[in-house]
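Minutes, project check-in

Agenda point 3 was the complex the collaborators sent over. CS summarized: two entities, 876 residues total, and the question is how they sit relative to each other. Sequences were read into the notes so everyone works from the same version.
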Amino acid sequence: MDARLFERLPAARLRRLAAVTAAAAALLVAGCSGTDGGALVKAEPGPVPAAPQRMGDPEIGRDVIESGRYMTCGMPYAAWRRVGGAPGSGAESSASRDGLPYYMSVTEDERGVEIANANCLLCHAALFDGEPVIGLGNESLDFTDDPSELADAVGAYVLGPEQAETWRKWADRIAAIAPYMITDTVGVNPAPNLTLALIAHRDAKTLAWHDTPQMEPPPERPLPISVPPWWRVAKKHAVFYNGMGRGDQVRFMMMKSLVCTDGVDEAERIEEMFTHVRAYIASLEPPAYPYPIDEALAARGEPIFAEHCSSCHGTYGEDGEYPNRLVALDVVGTDPAYALQAYEDSDRFMRWFNRSWYGERAEARPAPGYVAPPLDGVWITAPFLHNGSVPTIEALLDSRKRPTYWIRSFDSRDYDPDALGWRYRELDYGKAGAASARERERIYDTTLEGYSNAGHTFGDELTADERRALIEYIKTL
Amino acid sequence: MNVSANRRRRWAAAAVTAAVVAAAAIAMLSRAALEAERGAEDADALGVSPFDLLAASVDEDFPRPPSPHVFEFPADHAAHDDYRTEWWSLSGTLSGPGDAGQPRLGVQWLLMRIGLRAPSRGEAEPAEDRSAWSTSQIYAGLFSISSPAGAGLEASGRLSRGAAGLAGASAPPVRIWLESWRLTELERAADAPALALRLDAEGIELDLELRNAKPPVTAGDVGSPGAPAPFQFYTQPRVEAQGTLVADGRRIEVAGRFSFEHAWGELPLPGGPVGTDRFTLHLDDGRELILLRTHRTRAGGERTASTTGLLVGPDGSASPLGDDDVLLEPVGHWTSPRTGIRYPIRWSLEVPDRDLALALTPPVADQEGEAWLRFWAGPVRVDGTAAGAGFVQLNGYAE
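CS then shared the predicted structure for the full assembly.
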């Protein structure tokens, strides 16, 4: 607490504050995290303890993702289908239900206006070899443009006062978060930052929306995030790369509804749906490597994995164990910006979460490190590291091969089955040297803040043969 | 390619450029036909308004114009009936004797076609059941001209069927008409085809001969590659006009410059929450600036705006301009004594990369479309690092 604040407060208020603080501390000691005081505990590196999770029906969860009313505001469907989303208008709709692309859902808002929204699968499903893989993080989305321009373009197609009101609520929310979600680079995701921007506009207790931020918003420039695959969730004791998402995972997973959900009643209705969504996510299995595997070579790689990787990433197969280990920044050495922003510069958001409705069952507990993820199906999850800075496993395991500046096609057929990752072209210039805006957006420039490909050099000490065998084994995970 | 969401977003950028030809005019047009006092008599012909027609057809799955489109002229001047919406627009300025070449009269003619049924259903209807009056195409038109006598705007709207010769668009030869309003080809000379424009309203007859001075700029010239916009368009940015205006029995010679625009596909719907201002500026150095400024009031009352457009060089080469390239700010307002609506009518316009710093000043403040109560459309004088004349449409300022 700011010392000057105390100087301005009358004594009676000070005493109440002190009492609340003491109560909060007492509750903390009792192991209860979501308190009125907005308690904030920071985690230390080491094992992340398990937290009980609620049961749900995966099949219901799948239906909720496609057609559940968890987004209660959105684009008027009639306008959206004219702007660019008419059924059957694109090749992507071949993988859809009711003629919609799989990543779009149509529901109704409180006025009864049909609304269209991107559903969870926009970011949590992606094409591989031309086919959608549910749960695979989409590393090809482009967040480099201002989404409020898209919102206004949709607005030009809105018809009648009811649709206009529906559009206005959605467009206002998009406009509020737009400055915080424009990335430098195609393929990286701004979701954590836009979530913080939403929090800044909401009352923690009532979830009411305020048009002006109620706390200092996050920095405008989002740090780059690679969307992790959903099938890791079943093994994880905490969500988010830095393991800050402790406790009940449902309340983190439903935070997409922060865009629209303005009250606790609605949040509770969505929570029930998301109990099933979490069950669905936790039921997902990773896709098997679809190309030939040299079994003998893979067998030679297994002990190398056990020796060099398992202590953090666990063991696999029938009796596999995953240690849920939070690794200190100075140990893993990967780009620290994301973890440090949450650990050092985001207390207001963490406290908001912990005193909010969301914090009743869950807790934000940032840490100065990253959780080493489970590696099930890791072959398909390129690019690698939490910021997507390394295009292949081969480069991940040999830091000398990591490109400082690289560009890829964003074509899901452009997979390199030997290097385990996306084919890329190394450049001798970064964004500053790009010939066009289009090229600039597509260059992954590891010299930019938050984009570093440093760290995780544990594979460097291996011989080329060992590395070959290790990669072959990783294909089997 | 897994960039489908990406493509939609990309489209936004292309669309705003393309929408230079779209939103403002349509919104104005339909508001015009919709306004109770004035719209009723026009709409009576069909018993419906264009707004109703669009709403009724919104569940129809019209196809999108293929992208890229290979433009062919004059064939593409004609109607593209397979698509839901289409419009043709001529707008510009005229001056008469004694105006010393300064723009005094702003003129616009908009013709909009609305398809009621997707083509497959239209064809399914047995031919013997159809009368000469039967149609799945409705045409709506708007003509406005600055009042030759001074302040104010003369404006009228019409609705008609695309049947029985009442309205339509065909080529070659080019013929675009709505009842007595018509744009027709005068001669088919290879180098400089000329068109005759005939418009009338109460007490006004305008006859102009139009000559296109530049090649058309098409969606393909300015769109972003691979972005499937839901419509196609082209613009003829510089059309030289001269002819006669008869107003209240007085006949004067007039001359000026127009731009012609034509778009088809899924065009923006009228009456929406996003206002649109459109600027068509003809510079004396041979360039044109065509800008679309979208604006709206956000929650909390903040007014926000975004401007995109085209800069066309003397040789006809076109460069798209994004919001970052253009600084367009209102510097003077006028409040209508009739409607109380406050319009931004004087503007400061800068395109720093092109060394353009311009002031836009209307010779007459009152250019509100009084019959329709919702828009301002008039000429502006262009001064600054370049001189010229322009036509400005302002829409969406009613509270």
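Noted in discussion: The first helix of chain A runs from residue 3 to 8.
Follow-up: revisit at the next meeting once the mutant set is ready.
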